[in-house]
What we know:
By secondary structure, the chain is α+β, with helices and mostly antiparallel strands. It has two domains: 1-39; 50-143, no CATH class. It has helices at residues 2-38, 66-69, and strands spanning 55-57, 62-64, 71-75, 85-91, 96-100, 108-114, 117-119, 123-128, 131-136, 139-143. It has an eight-stranded antiparallel beta barrel with strand order 3-4-5-6-7-8-9-10. β4 (85-91) and β5 form a beta hairpin. The longest helix has 37 residues, at 2-38. The radius of gyration is 28 Å and the shape is globular. The N and C termini lie far apart (82 Å).
Amino acid sequence: MKFNTLLGLFTILLFWGCQSNRTTSSSSTISTVDSVSNIGGEKDKNGCLTSAGYTWSQLKNDCIRPFEDGISLDVLNAANSYQTSAFILIDSLQKKAEIFVAEEDHSIILDQSNDTLFTNGNFYLTKENFCWTLSLNKTKLYQERK
């Protein structure tokens, strides 16, 4: 009989102890989640989380990751730049292209001139042999690798 009473009391203490640990664990989890949301929380003026690679897209009117959503162009002359790539988005419905280059503070919109050319007067995005090339004032800077 004493054994059963001790076993019952031990069981109650065990459950009470586990419940106490769960409460502590939950509150520490909440504070951990709050801390994680503050880590890397740098946002630009449009609310894009820049530390996670997001930037504002004028064409999509949303935060995007150009390296996931865009077409990658490789730098042609690495001696003149520390960058290795630029990114482009093509919107055939709006007949516009958006370019993302590190040297610019924000993306640049180019208007479609014909099927193989988008430009804003300074930047030229041309399609040659099924590959895109980005030029600045007729100097080729980046090209799509196929």
